[in-house]
Amino acid sequence: MNAKEAEYVVFDVETTGLSAVGGDRMVEIAAVKVKERKIIDTFESFINPERPIPIEAQKVNNITEDMLKDAPTRDIVLPKMLDFIGGACVAGHNVKFDLNFLCLELSLIGRRLHDDTPAVDTLKLARRFIPHLTSHRLSNVAHFLGTPIEETHRALADVKLTVDILNCLLDMAAEQKIETLGDVFKEFGVDKPKFKIKQAEQEMLF
């Protein structure tokens, strides 16, 4: 399948911190479904992490504990996210970070991503095709590519920005004869973390 015609679910999470295995948890998840380069569906939800949110995290993502007090918990949100992904390829900017949180918290509710769900990282794409940038942060890549930047550090805004970047970088890949989804995954894919249910239950002790 041509990579530019494939179906992607581009997603992003906001969290209480940087370490899923260290006890941090998601507070927001957003995703868009992209087919033939166009957004065809959107998924977005706050997630009550059932633990305090450090002030430092609130300053980064502008999500307060008050905003989450009535939000659904992961056992409600994440099955819907799995349904939203379906058989699509997942993608994101530094997507391994987001996958660590998604996969660990899925395991906490006894679920997991399908084994055959590919994951593509736009950070890897950017480092290959825009190597001269001093930083490949999402905003820097967007600025170089001329992509309009709106609100950042909120999940849905970052996702929509990532879609534009993905489309541009797939064009660059095609110019280098990296054209099929298999080729793109081989060059720019990431392995999904796997957490056993028993390990996940131990993480709940944090």
TrEMBL record:
Coiled coil: none
Keyword Cell wall biogenesis/degradation found: no
The EC number(s) this enzyme carries: 2.7.7.7
Molecular functions per Gene Ontology: 3'-5' exonuclease activity; DNA binding; DNA-directed DNA polymerase activity
Protein name in the entry: DNA polymerase III polC-type
Family matches, as Pfam families: RNase_T (PF00929)
PANTHER family xrefs: DNA POLYMERASE III SUBUNIT EPSILON
Key words of the record: Nucleotidyltransferase, Transferase
GO terms for biological process, alphabetical: DNA replication proofreading
GO cellular component: cytosol
Gene3D superfamilies registered for this protein in UniProt: Ribonuclease H-like superfamily/Ribonuclease H
Stretches assigned to the Exonuclease domain: 7-175
